[in-house]
Structures are given as structure tokens and as C-alpha cells.
Amino acid sequence: MTLILANLQIHTEKNELSRACVVIRDDKIVALETDLKIALEKFQSADVIEFPNNYHLVPGFIDLHTHGANGSDVMDGTQDALINISKTLAKEGTTGFLATTMTASADAIEKALTNVCEFMQASEKVGASILGVHLEGPFISAKKMGAQCADEILVPSVTSIERWQKVSGNAIKLVTLAPELENSGEVIRYLKQNNIIASMGHTHASYAESVMAIEEGCSHATHLFNAMRGIHQREPGVVAAALLSEKVIAELIVDGVHLHPAIVELAFKLKGKDKIVLITDAMRAKCLHDGVYELGGQAVVVKNKVASLEDGTLAGSVLTMNSALQNVLTFTGCSLADAIKMASENPARELGVFAKKGSIALNKDADLVVLDDKLNVMLTVCGGKIAYQASSTLPCKNKPSPAL
Hints:
By secondary structure, the chain is of the alpha/beta class. The protein is about 30% helix and about 25% strand. Strands 1, 2, 3, 4, 5, 19, 20 and 21 form an eight-stranded mixed β-sheet that branches. An eight-stranded parallel β-sheet has the order 6-9-10-11-12-13-14-15. Strands 16-17-18 form a three-stranded antiparallel β-sheet, with no helix packed on it. The chain is globular and about 65 Å long.
């Protein structure tokens, strides 16, 4: 099957094309043309979808930290849950994500990892692809556990990582841990040696402990500022260490709840467009109404787009990736190209998949999103297949309109 998406502002890997079209064959980008007639001469049997000329074509978003959506959670440990999450994320322009676990019993973690392994090995894909696992806990600090379960916190262990990596089919790509805990240095070194991203998160580490962890191989900060020791003028802590290090890429939850807009602006000015990844940290209530939901065995109250435990502790989010894109533009004044970099390119580079994903270029995977002029998602293509199409988009046809 060949599909042409036409008349778009295309944000390619190198530049921006106006009123251009992209040609998708099977699961790849096979051509970028500035004239639809030329594209149809080369690909005569192609279906075409035309859009208003102020719509944008951007690379699919990659969410490195998401727990669930639309009533499902990765920790549910079922194929139906992952299918539901995958389909739902496509509606917000996410084409790839790390299935994110939580601090839980070893049995619950292993059930979730086995389930992810089976999903990734399945030949039929239904929406956003699972690119691996983000193991968030159980190696975290009880002082900064957030909405995680204190009873299941463990001391960092290489043995546990080895076992869980085997159970997952080598799907673990990122591990969040508190670097001040016993054995953390050994685990960080092991992760680096095995090309797994070590991330500082849910931590009360001092500045000195954080710097040591970075030197040992920590190259990522889990939802920077949230669930971690803050900055004090005499103890800069983990936040300052992450902000000052060129080696650390920082996750930001840009929902206007977890971080004040000025903090997002501060982080952007210090880290720059190359060292930030936009994430959602979303839980199962995303896309649902206000109410009471479950996260890691705890009741979470969702009201006015804020998810929290009964004591007020924030418990993930209901943020979508396209909203994160909109918000980071508003909060920082950055360019759309910068925002796309933080939502697509940077996570792809960090995962080591940029040769295939994270930008629009010839022969890359056809993971694409059409956004309207307000950056709402109009169409999402995952692996060359339309995974979501807003009802307002034009139908497919195989010849140009009379205006062309």
C-alpha cells in the first residue's frame, strides 16, 4: 500500500517544506515532494489525503515515561491493557513509548514484564509501538516515593536487574533508581555496561551523591524536580546536579501542574533543546472523567486534570503528548522545531533508535503525526498504518483535487 499525505508544512530532519507531501509505502517514508502532481506521477496507484496548508506534519512523539491510559495500566499485566494503551496513545500523536512499571512485588513486576515481552513479539501492531520498558522502581527512596508503594521498595540489585531483563526479553531500556541507596553504584555501572539508561529519580540524594552517580553512568533524570530533593543554597541536591551536567537528559512533565511554567522555562534555559525530553507520566485515568482510580494499589483522585492521592501527593498525570508540546511552546517561547526535538528526536536518540525513528527523513519508519494549526492531532500513522484519524480529516482519494 502507498499513501500520500499532501499539502502540509512538513518538519523534516533538516528543514521545513511548505505545501509539501510525504509518500509512505508499507512502513517506510519513501519520498518527500513539494508538488503533489509530481508525487502522483511517480506513485500513480497511491491513495491521497489532503490537508489545509496550515497543518503540520511532524515525527511521531516518543513517550519514555507512561504508565497507562483509558482505564488500563502496564501493571495490569494483560495483553488487552497494552492494546488499549497503544491505541489510545496514538490519538495524542504518540507512535512509540516505554511501558513504565511501578514499585511493586517481584511477582507483579515479572508479570508485567512477561506481558510486555509477549506484546512486543506479536506480529500485529495496533497503535503506538512499545519500544521497551522503563523500570521505575523498586529501587527508590522512601523519602521521595511519591505515589509509589513503600512496602515494596528494595535495595538496588544487579541480580534483580539480570532476572527481570531476561523475563522481559531484554526489553528494559531505562531504570529509575535513587543513587544514594546501598549498591546503587554497582547497579549504575552494570546498567551503563549493558546499554541500559540509568536515571536518577524518586531520590533524596545530595549534590555530591548525584555527581558521583553521574560520573558512574547516570545519564537521565526522571521527571526532573518532581519526587526528588530540591535545590538549597547550601545543598544543591540532585536537581542542581542534573541541571548543571551536560551528561544528563532531563524528563519534564509539562502539564502546568507538576511544574510551574517558570520552572519549565528555567530548565529549558539551562538544559537547552538537546537535553530535555517531554514525558507524560500518565496513569490509567488519562482520557477518562474525574473520579477515583487505582495506581500501584493506591486510590487516586482525579479532579480538574490533577491526579493525586488522598493526602494531596501527585500521582502521575492525565497529560497527553500533544498538550505537552503545546505547553512547552507557551511556557518557554521555544520554536516548534525545538518542541518537536524534545518530543520526538531526543527520546529516539537516547534510546538508540534515531536511525529509524524520531524525525522525518527518507527510509525512516513512517511514524508520523498531522497537527492542525492549534497543534491538535488530526491523524497518526504508526509503522505506515493509520492508527488514528480525526473525523474532520478529508477522505482518501487517488487523484489530486481540481485546485491542483
